[in-house]
């Protein structure tokens, strides 16, 4: 557990945003309180390539239940997310919905006394700060390598164009590297076409043929 309800709750002791006041719930085991509110994310929540963006509305639909060791918080969290596809690098949007279940321990409870500070969340002045729970849950839910589509074909390895817009006929002529030097030589050599002018060998053969014909006629 990377965060806990602590100093953040001490700075803001009001039942608003991610902070939940449990005083109306009481401590009788079995007491239940429903909480539904929409909170605006003050900053990005998630991973580098995909996250709930700052300013997005996060919908909380929660149930607070008093138990012997603290307050059990369960429910759903939904919010829009923005990401960058790890294959084609295009931006995309989606919706995230996840379920949370977390116990916030009472001060001086057996659970609070037998666990390390970072092992469990705690109530502070009867307040619960649900933001660290959501931050941890979102980070675990989102993929490290997000995709705009499950079957995203990515980028062409030759020219870098998105295969989604390149079309099925998009291809490149791949030259065998063993012939690369010859292809370069041919492209740099002038006059690659077939010439109509006779070569030196052709002229020599013609001269010999003419001489032989003249000798035969003289005889």
From TrEMBL:
InterPro entries: YceD (IPR003772). Transmembrane segments: none annotated. Coiled coil: none annotated. It comes from the Bacteria. Residues 200-219 have a biased composition (Basic and acidic residues). PANTHER family: LARGE RIBOSOMAL RNA SUBUNIT ACCUMULATION PROTEIN YCED HOMOLOG 1, CHLOROPLASTIC (PTHR34374). This is Large ribosomal RNA subunit accumulation protein YceD. It comes from Nocardia cerradoensis. The lineage of its organism: Bacteria, Bacillati, Actinomycetota, Actinomycetes, Mycobacteriales.
